[in-house]
Design brief:
Helix 3 links the parallel strand 8 and strand 9. This protein has one domain: Alpha/Beta hydrolase fold, catalytic domain (Rossmann fold, 3-Layer(aba) Sandwich), CATH 3.40.50.1820. Helix 2 crosses helix 3. The protein has ten helices and eleven strands. The radius of gyration is 19 Å and the shape is globular.
Length: 362
């Protein structure tokens, strides 16, 4: 296991689903971060495939504390969304609101773990070498891998909190059902505790079909990125993650909107890989925590926002299904000038009061 220490000054808001939202003009610095890689040998996926070496990258802040029984008491696992990385949380709108001195997740008090999921960031992914021959991972695999990272790689045998955004929100429900005694509390943001169906499945399939049907994809063995496929995918991702009120106010003219879109493509096309994106979106294919919600025993503070295209409030599953969890509360953040659609999950100022309530109960 390799570790290097660096200080990060990240000013852009990196939002899961490969979305980029304009950020507040503020500067911030966080405590020194530690980065490393943990390798799981012969990791077996639910598909039956095996990877001889699965690399899991992580970033941490703070140090673990243990009680008399050697149980870690202050670890916080924060999980990113589709297309994201652990580094996306090192921004003013997230870390600047939570990780500083005296803040809710003060890195001087907590051991904060920001991992890259399978297929994301610096963890093992299709674009490394195997391309379309990379194992067909799913959310269960991603959670199982992070459990190994914590227990075998970082020596963390218990979590004080799991906070997950978007895909990480869904992972939070999987964590709560699969390892119900491993955490003290769960805070899922921006997802549904049911199978991905309806419009949510349709737009995801549109992204995957755009990649697979591009002649330049070549079954995943392309020599150059299939540009039309990626442009179509980015079109859909932008719509899925956008907030109508915010975009109308910040892009009030045709020319402003056109320039925003041009800049969006210039920024997001760079470094984007078709196989990585296809695998990341496809990983949600068999997610469905609804049959086992009663297995979750940790307190849950579950939050969605009313302007979320992916999880709109007219779908009542969030409010109804969470009632099956013994000690859970569902909060719907109303639309305002401050909400950012799906990306509201990363703007901590809008929901940190609920995090405070959850932590006060611990």
């Amino acid at each position: 296991m390799r570790r290097t220490v660096s200080r990060l000054f990240v000013l852009a808001a990196a939002v899961p689903l490969l979305l980029s939202l304009p950020t507040q003009g503020q500067t911030a610095s966080w405590p020194a971060t530690t980065e490393g890689d943990f390798t799981v040998k012969n990791f077996k996926f639910h598909s039956g495939e095996t990877l001889p070496e699965l690399r899991l990258h992580y970033t941490t802040l703070g140090k673990p504390a243990r009680d008399a029984q050697d149980r870690v008491t202050n670890a916080v696992l924060i999980l990113h969304g589709t297309g994201g990385t652990g580094h996306q949380f090192l921004t003013p709108i997230f870390a600047g609101e939570l990780f500083g001195p005296g803040q809710l997740l003060d890195a001087a008090r907590y051991f904060i773990i920001l991992p890259d999921g399978i297929g994301h960031g610096k963890s093992s992914k299709p674009s490394d070498e195997l391309h379309a021959h990379f194992p067909q991972y799913d959310y269960d695999d991603m959670v199982a891998a992070h459990h190994q990272l914590l227990s075998a790689g970082l020596g963390v045998n218990h979590l004080h909190l799991i906070l997950g955004t978007s895909m990480g929100c869904m992972h939070s429900f999987v964590w709560g059902e699969t390892y119900p005694d491993f955490m003290d509390a769960l805070m899922p943001l921006a997802c549904q505790p049911v199978q991905i169906a309806g419009r949510n499945r349709v737009w995801r399939k549109m992204v995957m079909d755009a990649i697979r049907n591009d002649p330049e994809w070549k079954g995943g063995e392309y020599s150059a990125q299939p540009q039309q496929a990626l442009r179509t995918a980015l079109d859909l991702l932008l719509i899925a993650g956008s907030a109508p009120l915010y975009m109308q106010k910040t892009l009030p003219t045709r020319d402003a909107a056109d320039k925003y879109l041009d800049d969006y493509f210039k920024t997001r096309m760079t470094g984007l890989d078709a196989n990585d994106l296809l695998y990341a979106v496809n990983a949600s294919r068999n997610y469905d925590p609804s049959p086992n919600l009663e297995k979750i025993t940790a307190p849950v503070m579950y939050i969605n926002s009313a302007d979320d295209f992916i999880n709109p409030p007219e779908l009542v599953m969030a409010a109804t299904e969470i009632k099956r969890v013994k000690n859970a509360r569902f909060v719907l953040i109303p639309i305002s000038d401050e909400t950012r659609g799906h990306g509201t999950h990363t703007k901590a100022v809008l929901w940190k009061q609920y995090l405070a309530e959850l932590l006060d109960g611990k």
